[in-house]
User: What shape does this take?
Amino acid sequence: MSASDPTSGGPLLDGPHDPEHDPTASYALEPEYVERLTSRILATTGETKVAESPMNGAPLAHIPQSSAADVEEAFRRARAAQAVWARTPLDQRAEALMRLHDIVLDRQDEILDLIQLESGKARKHAFDEPLHIALTARYYGRTAHQHLDTERKAGIVPGLTRVEVNRIPKGVVGIISPWNYPFTMALCDGLPALLAGNAVVTKPDAQTMLSALLGAQMLEEAGFPRDLWQVVAGPGRELGTPIIDRSDYICFTGSTATGKIIAKQCAEHLIGCSLELGGKNPILVLRDADIEKAAEGAVRACFSNAGQLCVSTERMFVADQVYDRFMERFVARIEAMTLGASTEWGVDMGTLISADQLETVTAHVEDAKDKGVRVLTGGSPRPDLAPYFFEPTVLEGVNPEMTCFGTETFGPVVSVYRFHDEADAIARANEGEYGLNGSIYSQDGDRARAIAKQIKCGTVNINEAFGATFASIDVPMGGMRESGMGRRQGSEGILRYTEPQSVGTQRGIRFAPMFGMSDEAYAKLMTANMRLMKKLGRA
Ligand code: NAD
Assistant: This one.
């Protein structure tokens, strides 16, 4: 564990650390540090909820709980702040994002400590979070004008009709986020919302409030007005409705089941929403794949954050010609992984976050075992490492009778299938209701890109697990089918938070008969004009 750093305001751990991956190590946080963070929650109920660390199951913090009235107050403050913020020059808003970029890189140790204490993930997987925020902040900071400037378009009468599109902020955006990437999921979607001139009310997952609160604190340090980013805490089932009732747009990341509930509620208010949901993501290892690279990438694809990653791979289709060689290397790499609940670098996979997660993952694997699956490696909980730890697991012989065939496990469990015919592999990869992320390993980029077009997923990574698309903020990220609606990142990721407003200025002529012309003569003139425009190639 990195030492406390008074200048950065770090977590100031007051217990022994865990040099030997000791599951009994203390991870207590300084009460003043927790107090500073939790004071950002708008909560007047006087109630608190204990958050525990999955590193050792010990209490970590008492989180103040918000009521529906607190949500109302959060929106009142956010609306007042938004009215001022929307008039703040775009360059000034973009500069705050560029400062945030530096803050998260400078204070990454503090961020990583907190993410790890709350989620139990390996430090290298925690690192993806400040990295993603820095990438997102820099991308939108640098491309602000490209997305948000008023844009001239082609008017009906060249030279006489001037039309342009303004991007008006929606107002107050509600963001409901999950626990799996607690820092970046709470923050990343809010950055373009702020840049576009909105305020945000967030409800991060109850298990990982501190990481989200650290993000809120850093936004303020970067120069975003405090009231522009409101944080409420409590169960989604209770706070979801009051948030949706008052939002001008909802950005939700979480399960498909919850996403459907939220979509219905948004429809009642006729407000837009983007839904980043679950997946049952496939990898295709083609016969011409570089086997060593594919095995290395597959380990990251399946076991980053112990598989608790929306774009994580849970189904692997491997060409017959390379199946045995690939599986030998894949399993060998898994068995060489360093497992543990530790805040040191050097661990390859951390723990699941909760007893609920352990229960689901265990149930999926036990169900498959009962129905005759072959466990190529792993397959069991590891309470010796941490209370909710589950081994990286590879299953062969999974069939549709088994729960893990089509249901998202959201854990470190992958099913492997042999294929003879590529068309058949593509069809199997496209089975089911999800469509989030796919990966293809092949040394023939053109062939792999052609196959990508046949994969029903919002992102496809060639010769990479998920990072090639996820970390390229210029491209949209999200799911097809039941994996979601709308996209984060790229121009889609910011334009969703704006209302396009078309403004037309007409001069010279009007759209009605002129100079004593009859309606019929006007219709003839317009018809001739239409034919001419087509000949001239006008859109
Ligand atoms: P979840 O749907 O249970 O919870 C997500 C958030 O929604 C939490 O903040 C929760 O409090 C809130 N919530 C729960 N019920 C609610 C309701 N009725 N109304 C409003 N809010 C409610 O999901 P989870 O189990 O925390 O997260 C894991 C899921 O999220 C997985 O399916 C995973 O694939 C998905 N996920 C998707 C992405 C993506 O970008 N597509 C990213 C991360 C996670």
